[in-house]
Amino acid sequence: MMFNFYKFVMKKFTLLVVAMFSMAFSANAQYNVDGHKFWDNWSLGIEGGVSTNAHDWNTPNGAVVGINATKAITPVVSFEFSIGAGINNNYNWRMERSANVFDNVSAIASTKINLMNWFCGYKGTPRLFEIQARGGFGYMREFYPNSGNNPTKSGNDLNRAIAKFGFDFDFNLGESKAWTISLRPAVVMKLAPETSPKYLGCVYLDPCGAYGHNVLGQITAGITYHFKTSNGTHHFAAVKPQVVTETVEKVVEKPVEKIVEKVVEKKVAATGNNIYVVEFEQNKSNLSNTAKSTLDQIANGTTVILDAYASPEGAKAYNQKLSQKRADAVKGYLENKGVKVADAKAHGAESKSSQRVVYVRIK
Predict the structure, then answer these.
(1) Residue 87: which residues within 8 A CB-CB, separation 6 or more?
(2) What's the alpha-carbon Rg for the chain, to the nearest Å?
(3) What is the CA 52 to chain-centroid distance, rounded?
(4) Which of 63, 112, 159, 321 is most open to solvent, judged by the fewest CB atoms within 10 Å of its CB?
């Protein structure tokens, strides 16, 4: 009965944690930060502390030590792989301890959620104090003396699947935030619980199959070093959208009328010939009704020269192709109505003030 209840609680708790981590992944904003390369935002830490089981929680049953490596995917989500060991972790419910220095070893893969960045946003640098939730699954091997207490296991060693959930209370130190000191309380659950008292060698046989013996409480303190990233810091760095801002500002400062006057004066104003300006929408090469009305003003039989341009937002090669498409569109329309096109040049984006236009000059 107790074993079934244990499985029920474990299943519900695991589903709850998975749902929480899934929400964090889906709600995580696309931060405008730098430092997303594979070797960016790695850290290495060590920790040590005490452990006890839930059945005898008031009597710590030994020490725990560990080392962990973490990779931050975003300012909210990171992954941790840890290797740990327990010293005298069997005192409370085992009659005999292991003869080894370590009573158990474990390896756990966890997902960590930075709750401060999730709910309050990332400011471009880690806060002095942060809270992270973490949870994961792994493997534990427990070592016991070959005393015959468990004749079904070779050497009385036990292999277990485990789950570990907890919180990290982090203090990020220094101006560069390269070091973090953490307090890490956690709960370790054995997914294959002990239920047969006659094989356990317990001091008190009656409660050996109790739920509390399958849950360990840990509290550790650790220090972590964050390796330098490709952006020159030890963390994600905020990036300002300067290119977009500058482009918008320049378009506002230099409207189409002023740019047209400047280009006409430079290229053709001295000739005294008529100029028709055909405008296009951004990233478009098709003729609008307004553009067609402008071209319809040119009389049949007239000979013209075309100069096509693009605005500077895109890549140079792309702008060159786009201006060529605009020149071809104007040329095709004029030739269909009987206007001769002597020359059609595609200039791309010649400068930051270049616009989405085709100039039609009557020869």
Answers:
(1) 62, 63, 64, 65, 101, 102, 103
(2) 35
(3) 35
(4) 159
- For 35: left if phi > 0, alpha if psi spans -120 to 50, otherwise beta; the answer is left
Tell how strand 340-346 and strand 303-308 pair up.
parallel
The type of residue at 117 is N
> What pLDDT does residue 138 have?
95
Structural domains in the chain, CATH included, are 2-238 (2.40.160.20), 254-362 (3.30.1330.60)
CA angle 103, 159, 134 (to 5 degrees): 80
pLDDT (tens digit per residue) in 68-104:
999 999 899 999 999 999 887 654 444 455 667 788 8
DSSP 8-state symbol, 228 = P
Contacts of 332 (CB under 8 A, 6+ apart): none
Non-local (6+) Cβ contacts of 114 within 8 A are 75, 76, 77, 78, 130, 131, 132
Q: Are 340 and 302 in contact, with CB atoms under 8 Å apart?
A: yes
pLDDT at 25 over 70: no
Which one-letter DSSP state was computed for residue 40? S
pLDDT in tens, 54-74: 766 666 678 899 999 999 998
Paired tokens of 295 = 């071209």
Distances (CA, A) of 190 to 25, 63, 67, 109, 279: 27, 18, 20, 15, 70
Q: 174-198 burial, b for 16+ CB within 10 Å, e for fewer?
A: eeebbbbebebebebbbbebbeeee
Would you give the DSSP letter of residue 227? P
Q: Please, are residues 85 and 67 in contact by the beta-carbon 8 Å criterion?
A: no
With b for 16 or more beta-carbon neighbours within 10 A and e for fewer, the 34-53 pattern comes to: bbeeeebbbbebebebebbb
The whole-model pTM stands at 0.56
